[in-house]
Amino acid sequence: MSSAKRLRARMAETGLVHVMAAHSPFSAMLAEEAGFDGVWASGFELSALYGLPDMSLISMTQHLDMLRAIAGRTRLPIVADIDTGYGNAINVIHAITEYERAGASAVVIEDKTFPKVTSLAAEGRQDLLRIEEFQGKIEAAIMARSDPDFLVIARTEALIAGLGEVEALHRAHAYVEAGADMILIHSKSQTPCEIESFARAWTGTLPLVIVPNAYPDLDAKRVKMLGNIRMMIYGNYGIRAAATAMQETFRRIIADGGVQNVHKDILPVDEIFRIQNMEEVKAAEARFLR
Question: What pTM was estimated for this model as a whole?
Answer without folding.
Answer: 0.96
